[in-house]
Amino acid sequence: MNIENTKAQMRKGVLEFCILSVLKEKDAYTSEILDTLKNAKLLVVEGTVYPLLTRLKNDGLLSYRWEESTSGPPRKYYGLTDEGQFFLTELNSTWTELSDAVNIITIQNK
């Protein structure tokens, strides 16, 4: 069994939750989202994030707007919709339950 593949699948499983969480407080453009994820040690590449942002937008969880930049082309800023806020609240609840359950199991078996 390939441990790197398993770790990558675990990261991929929480990426949607993390992206929505990044956008909880303020709108951000893709580079800001990537920087936040990388600063948190969540290894992710642009090729993974762009399609996910598009899917989240198509699902009605994100909206976007174009904003002029003083240092280059316009930037696409993403933000949570009302539906995205609700979805994130539900994910937070599920994450807490799942995290608690995993902690109980892994701590019991030490």
Describe the structure.
This protein is α+β, with helices and mostly antiparallel strands. It has a single domain (11-107), classed as Arc Repressor Mutant, subunit A (Orthogonal Bundle), CATH 1.10.10. The chain is built from four helices and three strands; from the N terminus they run H-E-H-H-E-E-H. It has helices at 3-22, 30-39, 46-58, 82-108, and strands spanning 28-29, 62-69, 72-80. Strands 1-3-2 form a three-stranded antiparallel β-sheet. A hairpin with a 2-residue loop joins strand 2 (62-69) and strand 3 (72-80). The longest helix is centred in the last third of the chain and has 27 residues, at 82-108. The radius of gyration is 16 Å and the shape is globular. The model has no long low-confidence stretch (mean pLDDT 92).
List the helices and strands and how they pair.
Layout: H1 3-22, E1 28-29, H2 30-39, H3 46-58, E2 62-69, E3 72-80, H4 82-108
Antiparallel strand pairs: 1-3, 2-3
